[in-house]
């Protein structure tokens, strides 16, 4: 493969943002309640991405930073009762680091990336980067025949 992941010029920032849960009023002395941070969705044109996640109140042993899903913007029929966001593949994001994700090549020019934030996060920040470098993932077969020299 001729990917150039180590070349920073081949990575384009899609989003870098922090999110806060909305705290709900509760009677004094009750446990706090909040409305979970909604999913983060972006239309992307690269199946190779990096996602970094952070939560400033995370316990040291937490490692899950959410799920990233590739959703195709298509339907099998105009009579379908479902939204035009067909779930193609889901991958886990590591908390406190960038996670490289390579989604399958399904022959589409763009797709919806959906980042599901864990419901118990009260604060969440993320970076999403898309790869724009060489995508030559063809393999070259080399046929080596035994020498016929005598």
> How many discrete domains?
1
Tally the helices.
0
Order of helices and strands: EEEEEEEEEE
Which structural class fits the helix and strand makeup? mainly beta
Give the termini separation.
Answer: 37 Å
Number of strands: 10
Detail the poorly predicted runs: 139-143
Envelope shape = flat
CATH class: Mainly Beta
The strand line-up of the biggest sheet is: 1-10-5-8
Percentage of residues in DSSP E strands: 35-45%
What fraction, in percent, of the residue positions are helical?
A: under 10%
Main sheet characteristics: 4 strands, antiparallel
CATH level-3 fold name: Jelly Rolls
Q: Specify Rg, calculated over alpha carbons.
A: 21 Å
CATH architecture title: Sandwich
Report the mean per-residue pLDDT as an integer: 89
General description of the model:
Residues 139-143 have low confidence and may be disordered. This protein has no helices and ten strands. It has a single domain, classed as Jelly Rolls (Sandwich), CATH 2.60.120. The chain is 0% helix and 44% strand. Strands 1-10-5-8 form a four-stranded antiparallel sheet, with no helix packed on it. A four-stranded antiparallel sheet has the order 4-9-6-7, with no helix packed on it. A two-stranded antiparallel sheet has the order 2-3. With 150 residues, the protein is mostly beta strands. A hairpin with an 8-residue loop joins strand 2 (22-24) and strand 3 (33-35). The radius of gyration is 21 Å and the shape is flat.
